[in-house]
Design goal:
- This protein is of the alpha/beta class.
- The chain folds into 4 domains: 30-36 and 43-238, Dna Ligase, domain 1; 249-295 and 307-335, D-amino Acid Aminotransferase, Chain A, domain 1 (2-Layer Sandwich); 376-513, Phosphohistidine domain (Glucose Oxidase, domain 1, 3-Layer(bba) Sandwich), CATH 3.50.30; 550-639 and 685-892, Alpha-Beta Barrel (TIM Barrel), CATH 3.20.20.60.
- 46% of the residues lie in helices and 17% in strands.
- The protein has 37 helices and 33 strands.
- An 8-stranded mixed β-sheet has the order 14-24-23-16-17-18-19-15. It has an 8-stranded parallel beta barrel with strand order 26-27-28-29-30-31-32-33, surrounded by 6 helices.
- The longest helix is centred in the C-terminal third of the chain and has 25 residues, at 601-625.
- The protein is elongated.
- Bound molecules: adenosine-5'-diphosphate and magnesium ion (2 copies).
- One magnesium ion binds at residues 727, 766, 787, 790.
Length: 893
């Protein structure tokens, strides 16, 4: 097999084999840009090495052949004493994993070649600086020596000399530092620093292979959902030197601003420096524009190259470059990462410039990015002022902007929030005991743990703002205070603001503003007016495009006229799930209680007829808000006991009344009923269609209310389109009984009104048995709506409320799944049932309508799946409607 490619042999589409860095180095080489010559060892070689613990047959020979060829081209031998060729050994996987894997520079230096390098370059200091860097990087990366030991040695050398800048260490200092570094290596490894250049190179290659499996790389992959078995490529690249004096240097740049997406070049430059000095912050960089003053010629060439790259990649590129004595070299490029706002702006600009089509543009923005733009945010003016500065930064675990008083334990969070305070729960890390506090808090801040930590997982599940792993904040829960690196102390009760989108934490109350994108969706900002900025305009253009492109309809889950109206403004084309449970709470509770406790059919009828007009009014408002669009009303679903008083409270009341000899007959009766109806697993108990079957008249009352509301709307000149949905069906027999009742009621109401009422009756598919017998069920259902929340619970045997708070973070940490199946549909398991039910439902009833109304309806990856299996619509919460529209359009593209 061919395991090694020279840069000239590859291209940008070979990322799987050559990794991102290798593929793009090849692309730049073939574009004729100044790339130092070199070659790439494939990811296939890496996978073999990781699987077998040894290099594949022929790899060593291929590397040697390419090295010899490189030596010839450069006219120098690797590490040759009089005129050494030096190379870097660089990792580079398919997906960029910034800072996760390793690179070693200056391979080929030893006690002899360092003299040759000094001689040839005429710069002794440079030669010794390069040598100490090699030992440092090789020691750390290949020999696993604690990097701090080298850093400390440098600090000592600087202190001994009384300087603070490493540029002030002279040749002798660096020579001594090299000796000191060699001692560290000998001390830590029990052997001398390897002096053979080829051995140095091969060992570095193996170390890069192995760095694929380093724990931090594995963790990063899990968090970013990068497959674990891809392996990394290794690039061997001849060295160019940015540390050859002040006419040399190194820098990074972007062809546009990756933060805002605005046009114009951005970057940093550092004179007399090598490689990672720029990012490592060893010294202060200067903005790229200063390069024009420092080296006008290189600056001009660089601007030209960046322009070439943008036109070639047709996207924002980021680059690494080095200038060696006035000569510019390109060391890396890739399509650059960017913020959500930048993604929209850039895609739109590129369309404007005629570089890409709108179709390509919508493929370059995601629903997640759109969702980010829709969260309320801290007022930019307030956070960019001179007087506000962040206390610290953590990971952006769950987006949003939250303000509240800092509390350091769950108990206080609950207590204070009950008395009306807004609080931010600050913990080192959270565990299931913190759950109540997390619920009570506006936001959650932790100093430990990543995006799969308990805090992050639970917060995302609750849609609550969370910043996690803010390691620089010292959270001292015992003394109820937190100390920032700048020395500021936050005591319990001090107000802080946390930004779950940026990960920043501020002292004090930062004002929160509505996102302009939401105001646009709400119709408050006209995209054509000058109130709208370019972000709103780009979102508007994309939304028009995806609405025309998508096949699936997007509906919303809404159960009040206000929500329905908002959903409609957000672009919903109907309601996919109108829950009716909240219509039975509040001041209607006594009516429901009476219904459940009724001793005689008369009593029961009485409560039902009291509920009927109320329900009719509920539905009327919603049908009016959604006039002309379908409204799927789900008949009552939750367990009955949820409508009854708390068992403990009631017991106490009965006991007290008894002791006082007061009349308590009614309470006693209720108590008995509550006992009778109490369930161990209410979510698997008497609910949904089961309730409809055992409480006579309940579902028919609801159907009548819906039908009468429709009649009222028709009489008022409206176009109501209600649909009746029966929850938790497991077998067609359940459905048949309820459906017959429903149709009888519909006929009755129709006759009473003298109208032809044809309302579709359908069912939810949320139990595995329903999915597996979908063919039979479809005979009696005009539509299916997949309730993927319950379906996920029942397919996995998970009780969501229990599992998310207890062991899901451990599961994510261990990689059992990459993302919670409640966040993104489990395509292999739950998705398979959806597919089966969709196919068999369609086979039995070709014109059956198929939709989904679980939270997955607003999840980007899940929307793509639903498109693929041919569903007619997705339904999600009003705020997710734009996200679903965008993703449904992208899926169809
Ligand atoms: P990362 O993926 O962490 O950016 P790189 O392989 O890009 O690692 O290398 C780290 C640094 O060393 C970068 O700044 C890069 O530009 C620089 N570098 C890599 N190879 C060379 C080389 N052959 N000559 C000069 N600098 C190099
Ligand atoms: Mg790099
Ligand atoms: Mg359900």
């Amino acid at each position: 097999a061919k395991y090694v490619y020279t840069f000239a042999e590859g291209n940008k589409d070979m990322k799987d084999l050559l990794g991102g860095k290798g593929a793009n180095l090849a692309e730049m080489t073939n574009l004729g840009l100044p790339v130092p010559p070199g070659f790439t060892i494939t990811t296939e070689a890496c996978r073999h090495y990781l699987d077998h613990g040894s290099m594949p047959d022929g790899l060593d020979e291929q590397i040697e052949t390419h090295l010899v060829r490189l030596e010839k081209e450069m006219g120098r031998g690797l590490g040759r004493p009089d005129d050494p060729l030096l190379v870097s050994v660089r990792s580079g996987a398919r997906f960029s994993m910034p800072g996760m894997m390793e690179t070693v520079l200056n391979i080929g230096l030893n006690d002899e070649s360092v003299l040759g390098l000094a001689e040839r370059s005429g710069d002794e200091r440079f030669a010794w600086d390069s040598y100490r860097r090699l030992i440092q990087m090789f020691g750390k990366t290949v020999q696993d020596i604690d990097g701090d030991l080298f850093e400390e040695a440098i600090e000592e050398a600087k202190k001994a000399k009384g300087v603070t800048d490493d540029l002030h260490l002279d040749t002798d200092d660096l020579r001594r530092l090299v000796d000191r570094f060699k001692e560290i290596v000998a001390d830590r490894t029990g052997g001398p620093f390897p002096t053979d250049p080829r051995e140095q190179m091969i060992r570095a290659v193996r170390a890069v292979f192995e760095s694929w499996n380093a724990p931090r790389a594995a963790l990063y992959r899990r968090q970013e959902r990068i497959p674990a078995d891809l392996g990394t490529a290794v690039n061997i690249c001849s060295m160019v030197f940015g540390n050859l004096g002040m006419d040399s240097g190194t820098g990074v740049a972007f062809t546009r601003d990756p933060a805002t997406g605005r046009t114009g070049v951005y970057g940093d430059y550092l004179q007399n420096a090598q490689g990672e000095d720029v990012v490592a912050g060893v010294r202060n960089t200067v903005p790229l524009t200063d390069l024009e003053r420092i080296d006008a010629h290189s600056h001009e060439e660089l601007m030209g190259i960046m322009n070439t790259l943008e036109n070639h990649y047709r996207d924002l590129c980021d680059i690494e470059f080095t200038i060696e004595r006035g000569k510019l070299w390109m060391l890396q490029t890739r399509v650059g990462k960017r913020t959500a706002a930048a993604a929209f702006r850039i895609a739109d600009q590129l369309v404007e410039q005629g570089m890409i089509t709108l179709d390509e543009a919508v493929q370059r923005v995601t629903g997640d990015q759109l969702a980010q733009l829709m969260f309320p945010r801290f007022d930019e003016e307030a956070t960019s002022g001179d007087d506000v500065h962040p206390l610290g930064r953590g990971m952006n675990a769950s987006p949003g902007a939250a303000v509240g008083k800092a509390v350091f334990d769950s108990y206080t969070a609950v207590k204070w929030s009950r008395s009306g305070e807004r609080v931010i729960l600050c913990r080192r890390e959270t565990n299931p005991d913190d759950l109540e506090g997390m619920i009570a808090a506006e936001g959650i801040l932790t100093s430990r743990g990543g995006k799969t930590s308990h805090a992050a997982v639970v917060a995302r599940g609750m849609g609550k703002t969370c910043v996690c792993g803010a390691e620089e904040l010292d959270i001292d829960t015992k003394n109820r205070r937190m100390t920032a690196p700048g020395g500021e102390v936050v005591e319990e009760g001090d107000v802080i603001s946390i930004d779950g989108t940026s990960g920043l934490v501020y002292l004090g109350e930062v004002p929160v503003v509505d996102s302009p994108v939401v105001r646009y969706f709400e119709g408050e900002i006209d995209p054509a007016s000058d109130q709208a900025d370019d972000l709103v305009r780009s979102v508007d253009r994309m939304m028009h495009y995806v609405d025309a492109a998508r096949r699936m309809y997007v509906r919303a889950n809404a159960d009040t006229p206000e929500d329905a109206a908002r959903a409609r403004r957000m672009g919903a084309q109907g309601i996919g799930l109108c829950r009716t449970e909240h219509m039975f709470l509040g001041d209607r509770r006594p009516l429901v209680e009476r219904l459940i406790l009724a001793d005689t059919p008369e009593e029961q009828r009485e409560s039902l007829s009291a509920l009927l007009p109320l329900q009719r009014e509920d539905f009327g408002g919603i049908l009016e808000a959604m006039d002309g669009l379908p409204v799927t009303v789900r008949l009552l679903d939750p367990p009955l006991h949820e409508f009854l008083p708390d068992i403990t409270e009631l017991s106490v009341r009965v006991a007290v009344a008894e002791a006082r000899g007061e009349d308590h007959e009614n309470d006693l009766r209720v108590l008995q009923a509550v006992h009778r109806l109490h369930e161990q697993n209410p979510m698997l108990g008497l609910r949904g269609v089961r309730l409809g079957l055992v409480v006579p008249g309940l579902f028919t009352m609801q159907v009548r209310a819906i039908a009468e509301a429709a009649v009222d709307r028709i009489r008022a000149g409206g176009r109501p389109r209600p649909e009746i949905m029966i929850p938790l069906v497991g077998t067609v027999q359940e459905l048949e009984i309820i459906k017959d009742d429903a149709q009888r009621v519909l006929r009755e109401v129709g006759e009473e009104a003298g109208l032809e009422l044809e309302l579709p009756v359908g069912t939810m598919i949320e139990l595995p048995r329903a999915a597996l017998t979908a063919g039979q069920i479809a005979e009696n259902a005009e539509f299916f709506s997949f309730g993927t929340n319950d379906l996920t619970q029942t397919v996995w045997g998970f009780s969501r409320d229990d599992v998310e708070a207890s062991f899901f973070s451990a599961y994510l940490e261990k990689g059992v799944f990459g993302v919670s199946p409640f966040e993104s549909l489990d395509v292999d398991g739950v998705g398979r049932l959806v597919r089966i039910a969709a196919e068999e439902g369609r086979a039995a009833r070709p014109d059956i309508k198929l939709g989904v109304c679980g939270e997955h309806g607003g999840d980007p990856a899940s929307v793509h799946f639903f498109h693929k299996v041919g569903l007619d619509y997705v339904s999600c919460s009003p705020f997710r409607v734009p996200v679903a529209r965008l993703e449904a359009g992208r899926a169809a593209g």
